[in-house]
Design brief:
alpha+beta, two-stranded antiparallel ribbon, 176 residues
């Protein structure tokens, strides 16, 4: 009797193994995206598992490339982070301290994120951050406001970049 049970169990195990092997063969034939829930391989174009209905990811996520590439604001050429000048056109990189976007010389705000750009005092070369009106190194006036629209502009600007109003400086009014 024990021998008969052993043979019967062998047939049961064999049947289960055969079913598993058949499932594996079917998965190999489809050769697509494996279901994260039941493991069944589905066609590569499938969005849901045809066996259990679980949503399938189409492609594994690509690893992120965290290298910073500077893009010249003048010619669009790409250069590695840390470059001081564009190798194609020679324009200096004036990068935003927050997002590393290259900006035009004299920009007060970053053209991409709006962060206040650092700049150097024309008289003494001290680097100034923010909306500083006077240089902390020499006292030179750095910023002025448009008399019509209150836009903050670099000192010495002749016309407002927002409304086009002629800007008068103390020097201009002294010569009048």
């Amino acid at each position: 009797m024990g021998a008969g049970m052993g043979i019967g169990m062998g047939f049961g195990i064999g049947g289960a193994m055969g079913s598993s092997m058949g499932q594996m063969a079917q998965n190999l034939q489809l050769g697509g995206t494996a279901c994260p829930k039941c493991g069944l391989s589905n066609q590569s174009v499938a969005k849901f598992c045809f066996s259990c209905g679980t949503p399938l990811t189409q492609r594994p996520e690509q690893p992120r490339d965290d290298r910073i590439i500077l893009v010249c604001d003048k010619c669009g050429n790409e250069s590695p982070d840390g470059s001081k000048f564009c190798p194609k056109c020679g324009d200096p990189f004036i990068c935003c301290p927050k997002c590393k976007t290259d900006n035009k010389e004299g920009s007060l705000k970053c053209r991409k994120c709006g962060e206040t750009m650092p700049f150097k005092c024309a008289k003494c070369g001290t680097e100034v951050f923010g909306d500083t009106k006077f240089c902390p190194g020499c006292g030179k006036r750095l910023l002025q406001k448009c008399t019509k629209c209150d836009t903050v502009l670099p000192y010495g600007t002749r016309f407002c970049s927002d409304c086009g109003t002629p800007c008068t400086t103390e020097e201009d009014s002294n010569h009048a």
